[in-house]
Design brief:
- This protein is α+β, with helices and mostly antiparallel strands.
- It contains ten helices and ten strands.
- The protein folds into three domains: 119 residues, Orthogonal Bundle (Butyryl-Coa Dehydrogenase, subunit A, domain 1), CATH 1.10.540; 108 residues, Butyryl-CoA Dehydrogenase, subunit A, domain 2, CATH 2.40.110; 147 residues, Butyryl-CoA Dehydrogenase, subunit A, domain 3, CATH 1.20.140.10.
- It has a four-stranded mixed β-sheet with strand order 1-4-5-8. The chain has a four-stranded antiparallel β-sheet with strand order 2-3-7-6, covered by helices on one side.
- Helix 4 runs antiparallel to helix 5, helix 6 runs parallel beside helix 8 and helix 8 runs antiparallel to helix 10.
């Protein structure tokens, strides 16, 4: 990122996280990917840096901050370990921010400090076997009974859930009401009636644990309902719109890591009497991914700046997510191609980048959903 576009505070933040990413996260990434285990060491280190408190009020242990700062951190973490960046984004933007922005004082005081300190890991349970992109079609129910909400249903592909101590869960109190019947509920990780089945075998982002969350008469105190005014779906859409900026930033981080790997390899690999970097075909490939990566970064920063200014940003967030995820995939593909056969084998990082990049076009709203959102917003005006 062009440093002139960053304030002194933002530049310090970027440089701090970049150093941490290069020196701590990147050396660990291949091993965590191979083991498909939650990187607790990475998570603790991120908590120690105070990064789990961004955009959270100081009274709950947070550090304040801006959407732009969260995007900067998300990109730099992804440069070193894309899986860790997803863990960070889900924990912060989907769980912690949901509670800190929409919860009541009791809920904030009970849950946010532990999330900010890293004592507890946060997750967000929306997707179901029959409801992914169509979030309004969720079938998990939350029925009031004797001061509790009784949850029944199944969530799937829930990031962080096998390790989570706090799960913001979307359920309906009346399926006939459609999206108007959807509530957001805080579920403790040790709640009776909740089972998490770890899902393995992912193509990429393998150190980010994912689970199927099954609720079988899971009793949750009624006081854990976030807002009682049938605003659960609206709040969820707002949180997802904001989180798309972070996922777009993650995509930029993967693209940037791919670009740096391609440049380094091209400069140091000799072929046909000289370095690859002397070949015009290689130069063109590098120029294209460098340009796309910077363009994606500017889309991310623009959408983040709009949100921080209190302006409409939903269309721009979808544009950023769409373009940045496409760029991540293109950059990883190009970097692998430049590496040739060497890039096809682990632990060469571009092999992991290629696998990690693919899912950015799927989660947090597929590329097709982003196009739909962009078109609808433009055509309704």
């Amino acid at each position: 990122m062009t440093t002139s576009l960053l304030s002194e505070e933002e530049l310090l933040l970027r440089n701090t996280v970049r150093e941490f990413s290069d020196q701590v996260l990147a050396p660990r990434a291949a091993k965590h990917d191979e083991l498909e285990e939650f990187p607790h060491d990475n998570f603790r280190d991120i908590a120690d840096l105070g990064l789990l408190g961004l955009m959270v009020n100081e009274e709950y242990g947070g550090a304040g901050g801006t959407t732009k700062q969260v995007a900067i951190v998300s990109e730099e973490i992804a440069r070193g370990c894309a899986a860790t960046s997803l863990i960070y984004i889900v924990h912060l933007t989907l769980c912690t921010h949901f509670i800190s922005h929409y919860g009541n004082e009791s809920q904030k005081n009970k849950y946010v400090p532990d999330l900010v300190s890293g004592k507890k890991i946060g997750a967000f349970a929306l997707t179901e076997p029959g409801a992914g992109s169509d979030a309004a079609a969720i079938q998990t129910t939350a029925v009031p009974a004797n001061g509790h909400l009784v949850l029944n249903g199944t969530k799937t592909y829930i990031s962080n859930s096998p390790d989570a101590g706090v799960i913001v869960t979307l359920a309906t109190h009346d399926r006939n009401l459609g999206y108007k019947g959807i509530d957001a509920i805080i579920v403790d990780g040790d709640s009776d009636g909740k089972t998490v089945n770890k899902l393995q075998g992912k193509m990429g982002i393998r150190a980010s644990t994912v689970g199927e969350v099954v609720f079988n008469n899971c009793h949750v105190p009624s006081t854990n309902l976030i807002n009682e005014d049938n605003l659960g779906f609206r709040q969820t859409m707002e949180v997802l719109n904001a989180s798309r900026i972070s996922i777009a930033a993650q995509s930029v981080g993967i693209a940037q890591a791919s670009l740096e790997a391609a440049v380094d390899y091209a400069k140091n690999r000799s072929a046909f009497g000289g370095p690859l970097s002397d070949k015009q075909a290689i130069q063109n490939m590098i120029a294209d991914i460098a340009t796309d990566t910077e363009a994606a970064r500017q889309l991310v920063m623009h959408s983040a700046s709009l949100k921080d200014a209190g302006l409409s940003y939903h269309t721009e967030a979808s544009m950023a997510k769409l373009f940045a995820s496409t760029t991540a995939m293109k950059a990883a593909h190009t970097a692998l191609q430049i590496h040739g056969g060497a890039g096809y084998f682990s632990p060469i990082p571009v092999e992991r980048y290629f696998r990690d990049a693919r899912v950015t076009e799927i989660y947090e709203g597929t590329s097709e959903i982003q196009r739909m959102v962009i078109a609808r917003n433009l055509l309704k005006n």
